[in-house]
Amino acid sequence: MTLEPGLLENVAVLIPLLPFAAFAVILAGSTYGDRFDLPATAFAIASVTASLLLSLVLLAELYTHPEIPTPFTAAEATWTAGGAAPELTFGLMVDPLSAVMAVIVTLVATLVLVFSLYYMNGEDESGLPRYYASMTLFTGSMLAFVFSDNLLMAFFFFELIGLCSYILIGFWYQTPSAASAAKKAFLVTRFGDYFFLVGVAFAFAAFGTLSFHGDTSLFTAAEAAIDAGDTVLGVDASTAVTLVALLVLGGVIGKSAQFPLHTWLPDAMEGPTPVSALIHAATMVAAGVYLVARTFELYALSPTAMLVVAYVGGFTALFAATMALVMDDIKQVLAYSTISQYGYMMLALGAGGYTAAVFHLANHAFFKALLFLGAGSVIIALHHKQDMWEMGGLRSRMPVTYWTFLAGALALAGIAPFSGFWSKDEALLAALTNAANEPLLLAPLALGVLAVPVTAFYTMRMHALTFHGEARSEAAEEAEEGGWPVYLPLGVLGALAVVSGFANAAPLGVKELSGFLGASDLYGYAATHLGYADAFTVNYALLVVALALAFAGAIAGYLLYRDADEPLKRRFDPVTEALERRYYLDGAQTRFAEDGVLEGSRWVNRFDVDVVDGLVDAVSTTALQSGDALRRVQTGVVRDYAAVIAFSVVVLALLVGLLGGWI
Amino acid sequence: MVPPSYYVLLSALIFAIGLYGVLTRRNAVVILMCVELMLNAANLNIVAFAAYLGDVTGQILVLFALAIAAAEVAVGLGIFILVYREYGTVDVTLPRGMRW
Q1: Closest alpha carbon within chain B to A634
Q2: Chain B within 8 Å of A650 (Cβ-Cβ)?
């Protein structure tokens, strides 16, 4: 199948537009209240499915026709025309990366919406139009973000994604904890976005362009400035690039829940489980890593920024994985595993492993959506119980969920040949290869390798606790699986968790994704600017070590928890307490907000009330009181006025006489 | 011809008498008459200087002043009638409502 180039642009425009249109329709229809439940569901699923089909067409076209010049833009529009200031434009940028990401987003969104039929409609939730309107807006914003062709447009939709996650995490806003979690997610990510915004402004001021492509892109401008040794805004160009990269990274750390701004994500589990699946797999959290991949050419200009990305990623991968070890809530385990897995992607990007990061992003999207939907299936079957100690023995009662969840778990644990194994190995390979060129990468590499057995352990612990052993509650004894809205998404995602790794199974010689993304150009770019390797060759020693570690962790987790009926962690009290308290970081941040920021604000408020308002009040009080005293002059007796006038005239006459020298 | 200093002295005397009356009397009508005295003292001055300088402008000015004074008296007397209706007298020390 071949499409006219103009037609392909229309396809690209429609992909984000359809969910936005569905959002508008559902919003308008939601005035009908509950009667609009069914149309809202239909509009949401139809629009996102159509977007999925269009994304598949786009991907297929780009894949089968490498001769189509990419990136190309669609619906380019000028926002502020030139003149004295540089021009700002909006447009959709189509290239292999955005095409791949669009498929990931729409596929996961479609399956999540289908699953919502079971999780939301099936449970007779109220406010369904609101739910589906938010979900379509969320998907549309993410797609528009994916296709953004400049940093400012990316920032706009980045913010919209944050807003939608706020609405959806707080879907059950009557529950105080959900409302609080929504606020926390909004504020913590906004804290990071603040840096992002400053970064956008800084980049625009320094280089005069924010575009992602073409001859006048931000990357070429920055590269040229560095090569010419220019000074921009009072600092030399390479420092400016590092600053921009680190400021943008602030937004990434917030959205992708990297240390130290990861604390919002576990709380975000208060939202409905399909929302968690969408946030973790395809939209909110993925946006951060995607942004780094999109602006990879900017990061590759700054060795410092690359190292920061790698260190943040490596540390977060291990840090979050350890906390997942002790969580009792199945969604909390998945939340920490998400943070940890995005850490791997950051590690890969920082180490120059562009393909590895995108590859892991895709694989993770599929298996994490699978795990969340599997968890959602279990949660509904157990009537909204999430504590794994009240589960157990679900293997025979929920076979479809069991087998698909197992596929997702093995992918997450990094067991060959499931998808996570291939991409995680590539991430570690990137760090190992470039550690030869940049020894400072050894530490993130070590952290990443250490996280492998930990990940496998908590994954299999979760799986064993949920599905194996004896049923530990009445609900678990009577659990029943849902119908096709459960089987279809789980089946599709389960299949993908098994096969999606073969898209780029480098040890088997398959490098389809890498070739499609044109990653070798970027490797060359990184080699020029950072001295990184310009190609990655498979290291079988690393492969075997990682796989062995994963197997060891997985088997230990399975054996220890297969028949467990009480939490084993009680044996290691001081350590587990630190882990359960999330390294005291949540508490510290709350204290920082309450004792630091709030107390500081009180002081500022006191200054405002006492000093500033005091001065203003003093002025008005003086005027009022002197007026009060002076008005007594008005006695109302006409003779007094006559006397004052006569007396004043005499005084005036005397004054004039004296000063005039006439007397 | 009478020298202007006589007129000025007479006018100052009449003005002082009028001012004294305004400041000391309670009856509004008497005060109004005293005000007329002060006004006419000024008129006398103007006429005297006009005659002395041989300029007729001053005399015309006084004619206007007389006409306006007559109108002003009408307004003043109207107010007094209202005051009388309210208080039963035209004592100017009694109305004290027009103050803070």
Answers
A1: B99
A2: no
